[in-house]
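User: Please fill in residues for this 728-position structure.
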C-alpha cells in the first residue's frame, strides 16, 4: 500500500491519511527480502553487550607488543536507513517505524498522536519540481488538516552530512491545535520532504529531541542498497515485479533478467556476431544437420560445480517438457530431432540430443538450418541446475545456482532486483553489481541526471530538450535504429478477412503518418516492410500501403461482405479496464472510413502469446523485435501457419512452403532472395499492415566503458566497466 500511495505527489498521500485519536495500533509487520549483512537492519539494533578486556598470552619473543582489534561501531538505537529513497536517520525513544517502501517511511510515537512522514522524489531540477518548506507546509495544511497554517518559527538545521537546511515550525487547527516541524532538503536532484507533527502541547516540550532527530537525517550518496555506487550498474527495471525469470518460459529475451543469470552454448556479441559462451567450440557435419559442441573446461555454476553436457541435455529436455509450459521452445529449438515429440508428451527424451562425454554434446537437426546457432542465443536453451530446480520447483529462479555472468543477490518486491557478479563464470563481469530499480515514478531522465541510474531510455516528452546543443546531455544521447517493427496482423481464415478486398480496405484506412505524429512525435520510421532496417534481406524498395479511405470504402463495397460486415474483434494485451489511446485512434480510423463495428478483447499479459492465438481474433496489433539477426526470426516466426507467434492465425500454403524451403537453403544469396519473395507476397496478400520501425534514444553515462550501440537488445552488461576518472 505504501508504495502505491507514494507513487503520487506527497500531498495526495497526506490527503488520504487520517489522524489517530485513539490508542495507536500495534506496529504492522513489514515483509521484506532478507537484507545483506552489510546493510543496516531496518529494526532498532539491540544495545551492544560490554566486551571484556582481552587477555594477552605472552609469546616467546621478547617484550611482545599486544595488538588490539577495535570493536565495530555499534549501530545506534533507532537507526533507520532506506537505500531506495537514499536517506537515513535516528528516531528517538518512543518512536517506531510504521511503514516504508522505495519512496519513504512513516514513523509514529507510541505514547501520543505524533507522526513523522519522510518522502523523497527525484526532480530534473529544484525549480521544476521542488517544494520549499512553506509550500510543503501549505499543502499539508490544506490536504490533511483542511485549515490554514500559521508560521510559528523559522531556523536553520545542520543535517548529519553537514548540509544546512531551513526548518519552519507551523501550527494548524484540527479539533485541537497541532504543531508541525517541516524541512525540505535537496541534494543531487533529489528532494526530501519531512514533516513531523503532533499536538502542540506535546511537541513544544520535545523541541530538543525533535531537533536531534532532524539533525540525524542524512541524504545518502555514494551508495545504493549498501553497495558502493562505483561498483554498481544501476538501471530502471521492468514493472511489474517479475513473476518468473525461468529461461525456459521468459518472453523478455536474452536482454532481460534471465540473460544475466543464465548462459547458453553461444551468445550474440554487441556487434551481433555469434560467439562462444559455455561452449568452447563446435563442428558442423558436411550436410549441416549434426552439431558437436565441446564445453569449456572452466564452465561452472555459481557454486563451482562444473557444467556438463548432461546439464545441457537436462536443461533442453526440461524446456521441452509439456509440464514446463514453454511458449518459446518450439520456436527456438523445434529444429532438433525429437524435440517436438518431447513437447507433445509422446517421448521421454529428445533423441536428437546425445551426451558423448562430460564435455561433448551432439545435436541432430531435422534438416540443415543456417540460423540454428543464432536461435541458441535465446534463453530457451540456457543452462539450469537440475538439483536447484528439484529443491524448489516453484521459486528456484529467484535464487538460482546460476550459469551466467551474474547471480541473484537480492529481490526486493516492488523495490529492486540486485544481481552480483558470478565469480565462477569463465569470464567474470567487470562491474560487481547490477541493480534494477522497480516501481519508480517520474521521468527516467530525472533519475539519470541525478546520477541515480546510469542508462536511461528517453521518451518523447524529454527528447526535444535533450537534443538541444545547449543541453550537456545531448553529448550523452545515443540514437540507434532498432530491429523492431510495429504491425497489424490479419486473420485470413476468419470471415470477413478471408476476402482479400476486406484486408486491403482495412490496410488503406490506416493513416500511418497521423499515428506517428500523434503517438511517436514523428520519431519512428514509417514502415513499408516487415523486416526492419539492418536486418539481412531488408528491402527499402517495397511499395507503400498508402492511406486512401475512399478507395478503402470502394473495396469494402465490392467485397463479398458488402452491407453485411460482422463485428470485428481485436485482441490487445491488457486488462478489461485498459485504455489504449493508440488502439482507440486506430479504431476511429477504421470506423470513419469503413463504418465498421469493432470490439476489443483484452488478453492478460501473462502468457499472452498463447492466449491471444487461442482466442482467434480478426486482428492483432503487435510489435516484434529481433531475437537474432536473421529474417527467419520475423517472417517464419510471425507468419508460418504453425508458429506459436502467428497471433492472428494467418495461413497461406504457398508461403508456408517457401518458408520451409528457406529454412534449409544453404546458399546465403538464394536464401535471402526467398525471404524477400515471401515478404512481398505477404504484403500483396495484405496479411500484415507494417506501421513503424523503432528508433531508440538512450542516455549513457560517459564513465560506462565498453558501451556499444546495438540494433538489438544484446546482454553485454558483463562486458562494461565503470571508469569515472575522478568525475561524474
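Assistant: Residues filled in for all 728 positions:
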Amino acid at each position: 500500500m505504501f508504495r502505491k500511495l507514494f507513487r503520487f505527489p506527497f500531498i495526495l498521500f497526506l490527503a488520504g491519511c487520517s489522524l489517530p485519536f485513539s490508542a495507536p495500533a500495534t506496529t504492522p509487520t513489514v515483509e521484506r527480502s532478507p537484507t545483506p549483512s552489510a546493510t543496516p537492519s531496518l529494526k532498532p539494533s539491540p544495545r551492544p553487550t560490554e566486551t571484556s578486556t582481552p587477555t594477552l598470552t605472552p609469546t616467546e619473543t621478547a617484550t611482545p607488543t599486544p595488538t588490539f582489534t577495535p570493536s565495530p561501531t555499534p549501530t545506534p538505537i533507532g537507526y533507520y536507513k532506506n537505500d531506495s529513497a537514499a536517506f537515513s536517520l535516528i528516531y528517538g525513544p518512543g518512536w517506531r517505524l510504521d511503514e516504508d517502501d522505495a519512496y519513504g517511511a512513516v514513523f509514529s510515537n507510541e505514547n501520543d498522536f505524533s507522526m513523522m512522514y519522510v518522502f523523497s522524489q527525484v526532480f530534473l531540477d529544484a525549480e521544476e519540481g521542488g517544494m520549499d518548506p512553506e509550500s510543503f507546509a501549505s499543502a499539508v495544511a490544506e490536504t490533511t488538516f483542511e485549515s490554514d497554517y500559521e508560521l510559528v518559527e523559522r531556523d536553520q538545521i545542520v543535517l548529519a552530512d553537514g548540509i544546512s537546511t531551513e526548518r519552519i515550525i507551523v501550527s494548524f487547527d484540527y479539533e485541537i491545535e497541532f504543531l508541525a516541524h517541516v524541512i525540505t532538503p535537496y541534494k543531487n536532484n533529489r528532494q526530501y520532504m519531512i514533516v513531523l507533527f503532533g499536538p502542540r502541547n506535546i511537541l513544544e516540550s520535545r523541541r530538543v529531541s525533535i531537533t536531534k532527530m532532524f539533525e540525524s537525517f542524512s541524504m545518502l550518496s555514494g551508495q545504493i542498497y549498501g553497495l558502493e555506487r562505483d561498483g554498481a550498474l544501476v538501471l530502471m527495471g521492468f514493472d511489474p515485479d517479475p513473476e518468473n525469470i525461468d529461461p525456459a518460459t521468459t518472453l523478455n529475451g536474452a536482454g532481460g533478467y534471465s540473460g544475466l543469470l543464465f548462459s547458453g552454448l553461444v551468445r550474440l556479441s554487441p556487434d551481433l556476431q555469434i560467439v562462444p559462451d559455455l561452449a568452447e567450440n563446435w563442428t558442423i557435419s558436411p550436410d549441416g544437420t549434426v552439431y558437436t559442441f565441446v564445453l569449456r573446461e572452466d564452465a561452472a555454476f555459481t557454486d563451482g560445480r562444473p557444467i556438463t553436457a548432461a546439464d545441457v541435455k537436462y536443461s533442453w529436455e526440461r524446456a521441452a517438457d509439456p509440464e514446463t509450459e514453454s511458449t518459446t521452445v518450439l520456436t527456438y529449438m523445434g529444429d532438433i530431432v525429437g524435440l517436438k515429440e518431447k513437447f507433445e508428451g509422446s517421448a521421454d527424451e529428445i533423441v536428437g540430443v546425445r551426451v558423448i562425454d562430460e564435455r561433448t554434446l551432439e545435436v541432430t537437426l531435422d534438416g540443415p538450418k543456417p540460423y540454428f546457432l543464432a536461435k541458441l542465443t535465446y534463453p530457451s536453451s540456457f543452462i539450469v541446475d537440475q538439483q536447484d530446480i528439484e529443491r524448489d520447483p516453484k521459486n528456484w529462479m529467484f535464487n538460482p545456482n546460476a550459469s551466467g555472468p551474474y547471480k541473484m543477490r537480492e529481490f526486493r518486491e516492488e523495490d529492486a532486483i540486485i544481481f552480483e557478479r558470478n565469480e565462477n563464470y569463465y569470464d567474470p563481469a567487470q562491474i560487481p553489481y547490477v541493480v534494477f530499480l522497480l516501481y519508480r515514478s517520474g521521468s527516467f531522465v530525472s533519475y539519470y541526471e541525478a546520477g541515480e541510474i546510469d542508462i536511461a531510455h528517453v521518451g518523447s516528452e524529454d527528447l526535444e530538450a535533450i537534443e538541444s546543443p545547449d543541453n550537456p546531455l545531448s553529448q550523452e544521447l545515443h540514437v540507434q535504429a532498432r530491429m523492431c517493427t510495429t504491425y497489424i496482423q490479419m486473420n485470413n481464415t476468419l470471415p470477413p478477412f478471408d476476402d482479400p478486398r476486406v484486408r486491403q480496405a482495412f490496410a488503406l484506412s490506416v493513416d500511418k503518418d497521423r499515428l506517428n505524429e500523434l503517438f511517436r512525435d514523428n520519431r519512428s520510421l514509417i514502415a513499408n516492410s516487415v523486416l526492419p532496417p539492418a536486418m539481412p534481406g531488408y528491402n527499402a524498395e517495397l511499395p507503400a500501403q498508402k492511406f486512401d479511405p475512399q478507395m478503402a470504402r470502394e473495396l469494402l463495397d465490392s467485397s463479398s461482405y458488402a452491407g453485411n460486415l460482422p463485428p470485428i474483434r481485436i485482441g490487445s494485451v491488457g486488462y478489461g479496464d485498459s485504455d489504449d489511446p493508440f488502439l482507440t485512434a486506430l479504431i476511429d480510423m477504421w470506423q470513419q472510413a469503413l463504418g465498421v463495428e469493432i470490439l476489443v478483447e483484452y488478453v492478460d499479459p501473462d502468457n499472452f502469446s498463447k492466449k491471444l492465438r487461442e482466442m482467434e481474433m480478426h486482428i492483432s496489433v503487435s510489435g516484434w523485435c529481433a531475437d537474432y539477426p536473421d529474417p527467419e526470426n520475423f517472417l517464419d516466426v510471425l507468419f508460418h501457419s504453425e508458429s506459436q507467434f502467428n497471433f492472428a492465425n494467418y495461413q497461406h500454403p504457398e508461403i508456408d512452403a517457401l518458408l520451409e524451403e528457406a529454412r534449409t537453403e544453404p546458399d546465403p544469396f538464394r536464401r535471402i532472395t526467398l525471404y524477400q519473395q515471401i515478404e512481398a507476397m505477404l504484403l500483396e496478400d495484405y496479411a500484415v499492415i507494417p506501421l513503424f520501425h523503432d528508433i531508440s534514444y538512450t542516455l549513457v553515462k560517459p564513465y560506462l566503458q565498453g558501451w556499444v550501440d546495438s540494433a538489438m537488445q544484446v546482454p553485454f552488461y558483463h562486458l562494461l566497466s565503470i571508469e569515472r576518472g575522478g568525475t561524474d
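For context: The chain has three domains: 2-27+75-221, 233-436, 481-695.
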